[in-house]
Amino acid sequence: MKEKMTLEAAKSCPIQFVLAMQDTLNVISGKWKLQIIGSLLFGKSRRFTEIQRTIPRITPRMLSKELKELELNGIVKRTVHDTIPVLVEYELTESARQLQEVMDSMITWGISHRRGMFDEKIEKMAL
Length: 127
Known about the structure:
This protein is 65% helix and 11% strand. By secondary structure, the chain is mostly helical. The mean pLDDT is 87.
């Protein structure tokens, strides 16, 4: 039986490190996936149109495609309510909620990077 991968094991072996990173990127890569996950982090569950309203410029077709992929990868749970009209809601799985920490780090880095780029441009303009 294979032993479970740990962070320490991945950090100590370049092959395991790359495989673990690739697994993560396979699930969240693409222009829209992180934005969809981010939208779903701000509530228990959302309907399709609610998600679409929070993501500028995403088409219904692309949102539908990405939600299906996220569902297949165990990131999004789709619930169909037996009502008239049928109500479909999407929410993050517990596994996906663990991405909050990753996304917070990405946002912190993005703010810092943007600030650094802006400061660098101002310094160049002053010369």
